[in-house]
Design goal:
Elements: E1 3-11, H1 16-26, E2 30-39, E3 42-50, H2 58-71, E4 74-80, H3 81-87
Antiparallel strand pairs: 1-3, 1-4, 2-3
Length: 90
């Protein structure tokens, strides 16, 4: 299984979870686990995803999510799970 971590941050509004899950479905990316919460007026979401069926490369996905995030007034980032763990190891 090829897993990645997606982080989503933006000002809270109706439809963020829908917009992000639609983007994932359109790219054949499956949600494995998800956590979301409100921090004041900001919406935050961390999603563990399976990218095995996605035809795009990691750099293509990063570019796509950044562009779509900009359109949606969100910051959407994707990182390979192994890289994410390495960066957050103490």
């Amino acid at each position: 299984m090829s897993q990645s971590i997606i982080s989503v941050i933006g000002k809270d509004r109706v439809g963020i979870a829908y917009n992000v899950s639609k983007l994932l479905a359109e790219n054949q990316i499956n949600i494995v686990n998800i956590s979301q919460q409100l921090m004041g007026e900001f919406f935050t979401m961390i999603i563990l995803v399976d990218t095995r069926q996605c035809s795009k490369t990691p750099p293509q996905l990063a570019e796509l999510f950044a562009a779509e995030g900009k359109k949606l007034s969100l910051e959407i980032r994707i990182q390979n799970e192994e890289i994410f763990h390495a960066m957050h190891r103490i």
